[in-house]
Amino acid sequence: GHHVSSQRIRFQRRNRPCRYDIDRFAPSFLSIFESLVPSQDEIAKQKQLLTSLSRIINKEWPNSKLYLYGSCANSFGFSNSDIDLCLSIDDKEMSKVDIILKLADILHAGNLQNIQPLTRARVPIVKLMDPETGLSCDICVNNLLAVINTKLLRDYAQIDIRLRQLAFIVKHWAKSRRVNEAYQGTLSSYAYVIMCIHLLQLRRILPCLQEMEATYFVTVDESNCAYFDQVDKLNNYGAHSRDTVSRLLWAFFHYWAYEHDYTRDVISIRTGRIISKERKDWTRRVGNDRHLICIEDPFETSHDLGRVVDKFTIKILREEFERAANILQFDPNPSVTLFEPY
Ligand code: ATP
Ligand code: MG
Predict the structure, then answer these.
(1) Distance between CA atoms of residues 158 and 193, nearest Å
(2) Cα torsion for 273, 278, 284, 286, to the nearest 10°?
(3) Domains present along the chain, CATH in parentheses
(4) Prediction pTM value
(5) Crossing angle for the helix pair 189-202 and 161-176, nearest 10 degrees?
(6) How, if at all, do strands 216-220 and 223-227 pair?
(7) Are 277 and 294 in contact (CB under 8 A)?
(8) CA end-to-end span of the chain, whole Å?
(9) Strand pairing class (125-129; 113-118)
(10) Could you read off the pLDDT of 198-241 as tens digits, one per residue?
């Protein structure tokens, strides 16, 4: 039947060599990357917003601290992306919802605009707009793991520039093809960056920082986060590899289209390896976690970043991976066709 023949096609394509002229497309992918990177001016405005909000909030809560996290701090953010902030506050008396509501009051008094406390969201936040910089942001409370995984991603990005080049293009592809919507059953930007790190670890362009001797340690809600963070000592790590961004893109999509074993494998940047679903007990659906594509969170190791993917969206994702792999293999103009809107 159809199933058998599509399996056979996948098997045949598994060892398909990369097109001989793949490197020819590197310059056009690099110029797309450059066009997505935020300007120095924008980064300065984000810092300015962090400073002014910290000042307003600290007046009321002297022991609190405001952190930037997500794409504006992990170095995988596009120009004009929203700003994610996390307020860390140790107050045993108040619930998260109370803190969010009080925070909204504090921000009102500080002349910020469009303030909306969203207390019923899975992660409660306050949204706001700063009239001074024109920037919009979301503030969450005590989500320190997100602050730490932001640092891990930023540290990986410093080791080899090709990680940012690859991840920007993959994110741009995912946004153009509408497969970057975790609340609709596809994957978050965070998951795509982890997938890129994993590929570069397999190709020895990136090390596995969590397997090296730790220089950075924190414990957040029972998770021990420890890894080697002196990444300025590693900036020659990938120098042996001459892979261009276009070759890495080909490898990324080829891997997810034809090589990844969706029935058995979990990708893990914590170990720098592929581990088995069996070992993690991710072989069957538990509650809403279906484990149809398994991406281990580097710190919350019981957390599968692919758990939002269901039996419909897994098909969409795999078809998009195959489309992208075939464009990179055959299309005369891959740096245009890849991003054609869905
Ligand atoms: P975008 O440019 O699309 O806004 P982003 O880097 O802000 O990308 P998001 O997927 O919106 O990525 O996530 C924001 C941050 O929230 C991530 O950097 C990560 O720290 C955290 N995060 C997101 N999803 C998860 C998750 N499933 N588990 C743990 N942390 C997550
Ligand atoms: Mg974001």
Answers:
(1) 14
(2) -80
(3) 2-36+158-337 (1.10.1410.10), 40-142 (3.30.460.10)
(4) 0.96
(5) 140
(6) antiparallel
(7) yes
(8) 29
(9) antiparallel
(10) 999 999 999 999 999 999 999 998 888 999 999 999 999 999 99
Q: Where are the beta strands (DSSP E) in 161-214?
A: none
State the distance from the centre of ligand 2 to the C-alpha of 240, rounded, in angstroms: 33
Contact indicator for 64, 51 with CB cutoff of 8 Å: no
Pocket test for ligand 1, best of 46, 180, 190, 225 (most atoms within 8 A of CB): 190
Q: Give 179-208 as a DSSP string.
A: ---GGGTS--HHHHHHHHHHHHHHTTSS--
One-letter amino acid for residue 91 of the chain: D
Neighbour-count burial for 11-28, b at 16+ CB within 10 Å, e otherwise: eebeeeeebeebeebbee
Pocket flag, ligand 1, residue 28 (CB < 6 Å): no
Instruction: Please choose, from the candidates 156, 298, 144, 145, the residue with its C-alpha nearest in 3D space to the C-alpha of residue 229.
Output: 156
From the number of C-beta atoms within 10 Å of its C-beta (0-12, 13-18, 19+), residue 93 rates as exposed
Report whether 72 contacts 56 (CB < 8 A).
Answer: no
